[in-house]
Amino acid sequence: MRFLSILLVFVLFLSSIILVSASEMISFVGKFLGEKTYIMVLSGNKTVYVKGKTPEGLKEGDYVEIKGTERTDRDGNTYIWALQIKRLIPRTIDDILKNVKDYLGKKILIYGEFRGWEGGAGPPPVTRSDWVVKDETGGIYVLGAPPFKPIEDKGKKIVVIGVLKISQSNIPYIEPILVEER
Q1: Whole-prediction pTM value?
Q2: Taking the CB of residue 154, how many other CB atoms lie within 10 A of it?
Q3: Is the pLDDT of residue 133 over 50?
Q4: Average pLDDT in the 109-122 region?
Q5: CATH number corresponding to 2-87
Q6: What values do phi and psi take at 103, rounded to 5?
Q7: How far apart are CA 74 and CA 55, in angstroms?
Q8: ∠ CA 153-182-79 to the nearest 5 degrees?
Q9: DSSP string, 113-144
Q10: Which pairing describes strands 25-35 and 39-43: parallel, antiparallel, or unpaired?
Q11: Paired residues of 178 in beta bridges
């Protein structure tokens, strides 16, 4: 009897692994809004409900990266079953540029100022539309068309979350995932 109990637990464990691996893994970033029944995260302009272990010290307004699978509860509500909830730590541009190898290919968070097509960070690394974000330590290009008006919105306080990459001409830049006004 004991053998059958152990075998049943083992089969249930294996089936849960198969279910998780068969579900599509979702990864996204957003702003932590708070915690009630679910952890609430604002990603873009959509509130996403998440179940999982909240990282210690996480405060409302912090930015997080979440990896998990989509599920539906008994009432038909969709949520993310988080396998990982990671608080993103803000980095200075100077730190990023001095430690490119450490940050290359990783998600980074910058609190800065939108500078549009302002120079000072060298030539645009990938396209002519690339734009600059600056903080008190320096500036770095962000890939793609500016999310704000390049001249009128210069100086706007923003948040940039993206992946650090290096151009063919060896210039570090950020491939944006989330850009929003602070």
Answers
A1: 0.81
A2: 16
A3: yes
A4: 88
A5: 2.40.50.140
A6: -100, -10
A7: 26
A8: 125
A9: EE-TT--SS-S-SS-TT-EEEEETTEEEEESS
A10: antiparallel
A11: 161
The residue extents of the domains of the chain are 2-87, 93-181
Pick the closest to residue 122 from 178, 169, 157, 52 (CA basis): 169
Contact 127, 103 (CB under 8 A): no
The domain 93-181 is placed in CATH, from the list 2.40.420.20, 3.40.395.10, 2.40.50.140, 3.40.50.150, at 2.40.50.140
CB 105 within 8 A of CB 150: no
- Using a 10 angstrom Cβ sphere, with 0-12 exposed, 13-18 middle and 19 or more buried, the burial of residue 60 is exposed
Q: Which amino acid is at 75?
A: D
**11 has pLDDT over 80:** no
Please check the confidence at residue 6 and state whether its pLDDT lies above 50: no
